[in-house]
């Protein structure tokens, strides 16, 4: 069985033809051009997908992971961030109109889609229950229990980025004091790094790329090259991550945590400090099998997971 | 339909004959005598329950809410706190042995039981999805989704008390820095109150009951009498509560929160400050219908909820 999975990002739209058993068959990528408005973005989605549909073999449907909230019926995209002028859009209808009335279309939040991709093709493959955390521009998340997304009352569950780990801490973009995103969101992380590097005047980051051009990737690279300042920054960030993850384990008793998204490429430089502190934030008696693992799929998780929306739906219908 | 519900506490064992439609029929209470060991406590449970079983009418079963972790099969009680020498006990078997082999016995965590009681007879009566927080010696919690307890991987979900709201904050009894229990647990709350009252040398609490004898109840009473120091303490505590609850709403998208347990008797003196800050800790877009309400059942929630274990199980079997 084959389906098309789309990852609707603020900068790029990535689409893939996905084979249920074998994963990616062919991918395609176009620029989102979000500032050109909704109709332009929808045309770009069509442009990304159409070449994949011309290939041989029946396509069971199209799944799309999108930023922002999705309604419980998984049709409506509600105020996607960084996409000016969208408001509330029936993304399912909009895509059916452009791709074909008879095509099944499923819409999901991007972090939820990434979690499904991880569960079928990635680091969560052997787990029925896990938390997915996506570390990128923002911090996203998803709860998977019995291989299904836990969606909450309105479909918005999993907003890990806005959980506070310091009631009087610095605010994130939404104004939440001490939200984990205010430490680990890309822009926040580089800001904290600049501050902390004052303690490390010999850091190579002053030269390459220079403090004004810091990114999580350059910090990670410097840390891999044993730069003490860069190592300290990632250690500091990993400890914050461990704190929020510990709280989640206390609440949900879900003990496998998969870390994806661009910032997760720091790997053990970030995850070891998180692992080092996480148990100290969890009730004794709930420590067994707590496990923080790195997603290995990279940017493909979103596309793969979006295709899983189609596979899962058809599996469900078969069982009925 | 009638069942017996038991609330196994560290100090008292409370038992009730509960009518499914009408609630409490008759209650009974005995001292736990936890320090006299497991066999004594089991005998005390028997002593509390037996008089209730002698009444007319068939009893559908016995439910018990107990402190500590319960296994996923809801039989085993695992290392209950404040009950020396228990270890891991098959509480279902132990009770069947004493109450009658043919009696259905169901075991549940006490906070989970209180949540079920609230959902059928208390403040959560009209809600399918809610978070229950019990504020007492410790801070407990439960997640109810679609009227069912969310139990997590091993049955331990809902350990709200150990969620940190300050990664470098003061430790709770288990050593978790900044855990909400380290602010709102009974002993911690009175400790913080003593510190904060230094700013209020005119507080009536210096006289009655005196700083050494502070309890949440006396602080609440003083606050009701407009004592500025007492009001400030409960405001401080309520703001901490609002922070942890905001994080839970972000994660679960469950928007009704019911606050029970002894400390919740402070009512709006504690809950209004929580309501005042909670939205500032929640992602914009998830603010609608967020609601922090006080449990009205008091100590009866646990017994009622324990009886619900029986009613729910029989409902489930009927549906099969």
What does this entry look like structurally?
Two copies of one chain form a homodimer. With 320 residues, chain A is an alpha/beta fold. The first copy, chain A, has two domains: 2-115 and 299-319, Nucleotidyltransferase, domain 5, CATH 3.30.420; 127-294, 2-Layer Sandwich (Nucleotidyltransferase, domain 5), CATH 3.30.420.40. Chain A is built from nine helices and 13 strands. The first copy, chain A, has a five-stranded mixed beta sheet with strand order 3-2-1-4-8, sandwiched between helices. A five-stranded mixed beta sheet of chain A has the order 11-10-9-12-13, sandwiched between helices. In chain A, strands 5-6-7 form a three-stranded antiparallel beta sheet. In chain A, helix 1 (38-53) crosses helix 2. Chain A starts with a strand and ends with a helix. Chains A and B meet through strand 10 and helix 7 of A and strand 10 and helix 7 of B.
């Amino acid at each position: 069985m084959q389906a098309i999975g789309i990852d609707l990002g603020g900068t790029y739209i990535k689409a893939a033809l996905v084979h249920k058993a074998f994963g990616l068959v062919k991918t395609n990528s176009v620029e989102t051009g979000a500032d050109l408005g909704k109709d332009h973005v929808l045309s770009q989605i069509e442009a990304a997908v159409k070449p994949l549909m011309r290939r041989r073999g029946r396509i069971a449907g199209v799944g799309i992971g999108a930023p922002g909230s999705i309604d419980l019926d998984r049709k409506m995209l509600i105020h996607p961030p960084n996409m000016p002028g969208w408001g509330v859009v029936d993304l399912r209808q909009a895509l059916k109109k452009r791709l074909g009335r008879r095509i099944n279309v499923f819409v999901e939040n991007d972090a939820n889609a990434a979690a499904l991709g991880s569960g079928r093709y990635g680091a969560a493959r052997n787990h029925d229950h896990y938390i997915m955390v996506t570390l990128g521009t923002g911090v996203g998340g998803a709860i998977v229990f019995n291989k299904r997304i836990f969606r909450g009352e309105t479909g918005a569950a999993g907003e890990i980025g806005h959980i506070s780990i310091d009631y009087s801490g610095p605010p994130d973009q939404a104004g939440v004091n001490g939200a984990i995103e205010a430490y680990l969101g890309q822009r926040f992380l580089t800001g904290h790094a600049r501050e902390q590097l004052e303690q490390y005047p010999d850091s190579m980051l002053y030269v390459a790329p220079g403090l004004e051009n810091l990114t999580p990737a350059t910090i990670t690279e410097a840390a891999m090259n044993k730069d003490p300042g860069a190592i300290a920054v990632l250690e500091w960030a990993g400890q914050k991550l461990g704190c929020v993850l510990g709280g989640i384990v206390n609440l949900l008793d879900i003990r496998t945590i998969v870390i994806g998204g661009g910032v997760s490429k720091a790997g053990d430089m970030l995850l070891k400090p998180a692992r080092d502190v996480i148990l100290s934030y969890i009730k004794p008696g709930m420590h067994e099998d707590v496990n923080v693992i790195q997603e290995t799929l990279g940017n493909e998780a979103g596309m793969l997971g979006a295709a899983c929306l189609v596979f899962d739906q058809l599996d469900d219908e078969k069982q009925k």
